[in-house]
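Proteins fold reproducibly. Next comes an illustrative record:
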Amino acid sequence: MSIATPHIPAATPHAHAAELPPLRVAYESTPLDAILAGADVLAVFGFGTHAPAAHADPRYLRVNLEPADGEAPFEVWRVRGPVRAERRDGIAWAEGDDYAYGAIEVDESAHGDVEGAAEFAYRCLVDAIAASAKPHTLRIWNYLDAINLGAGDAERYRRFCVGRAAGLAAQGFADDYPAATGIGVRDGRRVLQIYWLAARTPGTAFENPRQVSAWRYPRQYGIKAPTFARAMRAPTQQVQVYISGTAAIVGHVSHHHDDFAKQLDETLANIDSVLAAAQVAAAARLDAGAALKAYVRRAEDLDAARRLLGEKLPAQTPTLFLLGDICRSELLVEIDGIQGA
């Protein structure tokens, strides 16, 4: 599986010989079966207990994060079709001409713990993508229960990072990672849920000048540092950037403990910085062409999240608000998204 090495280039990102059409991402309240009837639909995501738990179509996945308003629209990915979908070797898979979607859910108890489950899942992920006609990973989402449970190196997120790194290292990876998100659900199932987007042409990974690269974090944050790039610019005809989960971290240190508003400001500053590094024009950043997810730890901060983002972002910026735990217990909010879709 080929992934571009994270860096901050001084010149325009390499223009690939065969640039792809952008992935089309939207939040839609249409009934699920009507959405899945579309021949160009690559994947559909429901959120929380009000969304359908499952569907026979491999393109659908429910994420067990509760929406701020109790019910949320579906997140829908569309591509140049037609799309072919199947389940094979425990992986839900769908692909069109340019992109592939995959998802795997792994019961931790079958692999000892979250570390074992993460290593197994990432070995499966890498093997599946490498064997496909879409071998270039652009973006990965990771959801695990009770992400902050445990102290020090025993914290579940830190154990997940050890397993993820082992799964990637087994395939020969070294400091070349896609954009990614890791968020804690609260369903008590202890089932690791991972899904991803891959393409037939590689993207260009970017780092944030305001932050230490996650894969270079010092030892104080765990045995193995998190393995992801801060953003991935897609190999598309129009600018499209996949923004990793972003929070109030400057350098490698969390800022503004217990101050939601200041953490949100720092998060937006980090997103602006990485989009600038990816050479997205200032006027276009987080505009109507974006699709954002805001993960909020405390329910009492949801109103502030909606109000503050409403004040700081263009009114038409699509944003989904979800209750979820962040990878560090002191962090109250994280935002990820796709810019320029």
In short: Helices lie at 32-36, 114-130, 156-169, 260-277, 302-312.
